[in-house]
Amino acid sequence: MWSWVLHRITGATIFFFLFVHVLDTALVRVSPQAYNEVIETYKTPIVGLMEIGLVAAVLFHALNGIRVILIDFWQHGPRYQKQMLAVAVGIFLLVFIAAFGVLGMHMAERFL
């Protein structure tokens, strides 16, 4: 049940990010100066942490989505859904730790 809840939350989070991204990118056509001002506000530590959260959301949503597809379309999917969740969480942790390291290094360069 928790993977279902997290899948919905991460999906809504990704949708919200894409909505904001389209809006702030559209500012280039309206006012390049306003666009530059908005982009400058993104260069803060809080937004850096939000980027890490976005990476986590996209990664979990993608891996859990593959698991959901396998459960729905593979005849043995429901039988192995717990094992597939364990594999998805394992892959998530491996990739997220690596991504966290890279993002952390970039954040340290920017803010220290």
Automatic annotation (TrEMBL):
Its cofactor is heme. InterPro entries: SdhC_prok, SQR/QFR_C/D, Succ_DH_cytb556, SuccDH_FuR_B_TM-su. It comes from the Bacteria. Keywords: Heme, Iron, Membrane, Metal-binding, Transmembrane, Transmembrane helix. The chain crosses the membrane at residues 12-32, 52-73, 85-108. It holds the Pfam family Sdh_cyt. Its main location: membrane. It is found in: Membrane. Belongs to the cytochrome b560 family. NCBIfam families: succ_dehyd_cytB. This is Succinate dehydrogenase, cytochrome b556 subunit. The gene is sdhC.
